[in-house]
Design a protein that fits this description.
single chain; about 160 residues; alpha+beta; Mannose-Binding Protein A, Chain A; 5-stranded mixed β-sheet; about 15% helix; globular; C-type lectin domain-containing protein
Length: about 160
């Protein structure tokens, strides 16, 4: 996927029933950084996150309460949030600058039929993940490395 400005990146995510990735806590922030490092060869790369600098919410509506700004950031009074993938630190950048990005898509928005994971003894819940997705129990989510170097995070609801 070619890098693009913040607005086009968010629009592309919305077209696919999602939003730019929301980094709502330290675990998710580290996860996004590590996954990006695994697919983007230049660890000096920055990627869009789903918020503008002065917003009180992420683009998916979640509150913007967790912050991981690099020292001296945000350096702009207006702009959008990027993540330096090698450090997971956030930077303020012009929303018109082209960067790569990740989309986060709710499991309920997926058109693919879910496939349950193998069950452990005495399972309490079944967590559906499509065959190309990997379930991660800490976040109760399925993750997939997609085509053209993009990650789509598929959040699940308990059945």
């Amino acid at each position: 996927m070619a890098p693009t400005n913040f607005y086009d990146a968010e629009t592309n995510c919305v077209i696919n029933s999602g939003h730019l990735a929301s980094s709502t806590n330290g675990f998710i922030n580290s996860f996004i950084s590590e996954m990006a490092q695994g697919i983007i060869s230049d660890n000096g790369t920055q990627i869009w996150l789903g918020s503008s600098i002065n917003s009180t919410n992420w683009s998916d509506g979640q509150p913007f309460s967790y912050k991981h700004w690099a020292k001296g950031e945000p350096s702009l009074s207006n702009g959008c949030v990027t993540m330096q993938i090698s450090t997971s630190d956030w930077y303020a950048k012009s929303c018109d600058t082209p960067f790569s990005y990740f989309c986060e898509i709710s499991a309920s928005a997926s058109e693919a039929s879910p496939t349950p994971l193998p069950v452990t003894p005495q399972p309490k819940y079944t967590f559906p993940c499509d065959s190309e997705w990997t379930y991660f129990n800490v976040t109760n989510s399925c993750y997939k490395l997609g085509k053209m170097q993009k990650i789509i995070v598929k959040l699940l609801e308990l059945i």
